[in-house]
Design goal:
- With 81 residues, this protein is mainly alpha-helical.
- The protein has one domain.
- The protein has one helix and two strands; from the N terminus they run E-E-H.
- A two-stranded antiparallel sheet has the order 1-2.
């Protein structure tokens, strides 16, 4: 997604074990990097990389997944560039 400058535009849930439970929703936030914005009201338990109403950038996807990965799986996230 970073290569095509799109955000929230292609996550597919994958479960490879009984304890894996990672969900990505709200595809209505998808679009061109920098042209879509975070909603004003969001889940406050998530450490969002951008504030309410701010533009969503491509790097935010990686930041979100990195945080979720560590929290859900207690493993270090390694992106495949």
């Amino acid at each position: 997604m970073l290569e095509v400058h799109r955000v929230h535009d292609g996550y597919i849930p994958v479960c490879s074990g009984e304890k894996a439970n990672l969900r990505v929703v709200d595809f209505d936030w998808a679009g061109e990097s920098g042209s879509v914005r975070y909603p004003l009201q969001r889940n406050q338990e998530i450490a969002w990389p951008g504030g309410p109403g701010e533009r969503i950038m491509a790097r935010h996807d990686r930041d979100l997944v990195k945080g979720w990965w560590h929290k859900q799986f207690s493993l270090e996230f390694q992106a495949s560039d």
